[in-house]
């Protein structure tokens, strides 16, 4: 069978590597003890004590006696089911989409990602599970998202606050707050480009974070919440934030989408050398075959594979597009 973590063929539901990395080698049952109704009930129960989970379709889990059970505050895992609200097409594929996109980022694009897998409710419905990166050996690691770094909040900036910013200004925050800023800027550039290629238009301020290392300085956190949102909401804007504060390329003003020149300029604005930015873009463009191969062995049905492929190939074409000067 195919591993519910990494897609590799093996005898068990989770291969040994995934079992070790995600579940600390414990023999976790890949079918949870509860179904979605009970998930909801738990969520409502816990929400009385936790205001934050009231708005999110996820609950905390911990391992007890080789079982994953819901918990309020000491969870090492987050469980995300198929969303309860109908807000787009094919919502039943959202867990599969998030899992595939995270695996693609990690396995093919070599982006550091939160550990993740698929798991099933007791009635067989699929859900996405991810291991929290802000906890290690029971110790809480300091984490801050970019909405807080940018001082953006609903109360002072309105309900659209997560989107009312630019990737250019996020890069400025990285330079300001992170010691090894060049390494972090390269990571950030890759993540923004990856999101564009897979059609993730939900990479807003709260979906990027910094975490404190043992040496006390901060670094970008592993990537999380990656998915092709265009698969579900096809006509939304291509990116959650605009790339630039003010700048508009000739290519963008002629065509209305970000292309090669825009990503070149974006990298340059961060202070990366032209040759490095060219290399980063070209390295990603070379991954077409591997991207489609991984998509082929994913858990999507054939129709969804086709739709994902269409979005990806369209974006690839956009990034390859060079405006005649
Ligand atoms: Zn695996």
Low-confidence stretches: 51-55
The level of helicity is: 25-40%
Shape: globular
Order of helices and strands: HHEEEHEEEEEHHHHEEHHHHH
CATH class of the largest domain: Mainly Alpha
The count of DSSP E runs of length 2 or more, i.e. the number of strands, is: 10
Mean pLDDT score: 92
Structure annotation, total helices: 12
Instruction: Describe the largest sheet.
Output: 5 strands, antiparallel
Q: Which fold name corresponds to the CATH topology of the largest domain? A: Phosphatidylinositol 3-kinase Catalytic Subunit, Chain A, Domain 5
Strand numbers in spatial order across the main sheet: 2-1-3-5-4
CATH architectural group of the largest domain: Orthogonal Bundle
Q: List ligands, each type once.
A: zinc ion
Estimated structural class: alpha+beta
The percent range for strand residues is: 5-15%
Number of domains: 2
Question: What is the rounded distance between the termini?
Answer: 52 Å
Radius of gyration: 20 Å
Description:
The protein has 325 residues and is an alpha+beta fold. It has two domains: 121 residues, Phosphorylase Kinase, domain 1 (2-Layer Sandwich), CATH 3.30.200; 181 residues, Phosphatidylinositol 3-kinase Catalytic Subunit, Chain A, Domain 5, CATH 1.10.1070. The chain contains twelve helices and ten strands. Strands 2-1-3-5-4 form a five-stranded antiparallel β-sheet, sandwiched between helices. The N and C termini lie far apart (52 Å). About 2% of the residues have low confidence. Bound molecules: zinc ion.
Summarize the entry for a quick read.
The chain is 39% helix and 12% strand. With 325 residues, it is α+β, with helices and mostly antiparallel strands.
């Amino acid at each position: 069978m195919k591993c519910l973590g990494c897609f590799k063929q093996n005898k068990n539901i989770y291969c040994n590597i995934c079992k070790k990395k995600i579940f600390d080698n414990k023999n976790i049952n890949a079918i949870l003890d509860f179904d979605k109704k009970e998930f909801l009930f738990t969520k409502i129960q816990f929400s009385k004590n936790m205001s934050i989970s009231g708005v999110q379709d996820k609950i905390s889990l911990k391992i007890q006696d080789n079982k994953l059970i819901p918990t309020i505050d000491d969870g090492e895992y987050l469980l995300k089911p198929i969303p309860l609200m109908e807000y787009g097409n094919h919502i039943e594929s959202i867990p599969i989409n998030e899992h595939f996109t995270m695996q693609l980022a990690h396995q093919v694009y070599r982006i550091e990602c939160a550990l993740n897998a698929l798991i099933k409710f007791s009635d067989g419905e699929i859900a996405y599970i991810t291991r929290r990166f802000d906890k290690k050996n029971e110790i809480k690691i300091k984490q801050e998202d970019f909405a807080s770094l940018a001082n953006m909040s609903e109360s002072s900036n309105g309900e659209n606050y997560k989107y009312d910013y630019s990737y250019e200004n996020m890069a400025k925050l990285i330079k300001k707050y992170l010691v090894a800023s060049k390494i972090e800027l390269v990571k950030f550039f890759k993540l923004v480009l990856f999101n564009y290629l897979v059609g993730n238009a939900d990479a807003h301020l709260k979906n990027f974070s910094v975490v404190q290392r043992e040496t006390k300085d901060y670094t970008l956190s592993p990537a999380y919440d990656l998915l092709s949102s265009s698969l579900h909401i096809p006509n939304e804007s291509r990116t959650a934030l605009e790339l630039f504060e003010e700048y508009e390329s000739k290519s963008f003003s002629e065509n209305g989408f970000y292309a090669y020149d825009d990503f070149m300029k974006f990298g340059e604005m961060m202070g990366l050398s032209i040759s490095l930015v060219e290399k980063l873009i070209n390295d990603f463009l070379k991954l077409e075959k591997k991207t489609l191969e991984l998509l082929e062995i994913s858990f999507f049905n054939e129709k969804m594979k086709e739709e994902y492929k269409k979005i990806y190939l369209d974006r690839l074409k956009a990034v390859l597009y060079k405006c005649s000067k």
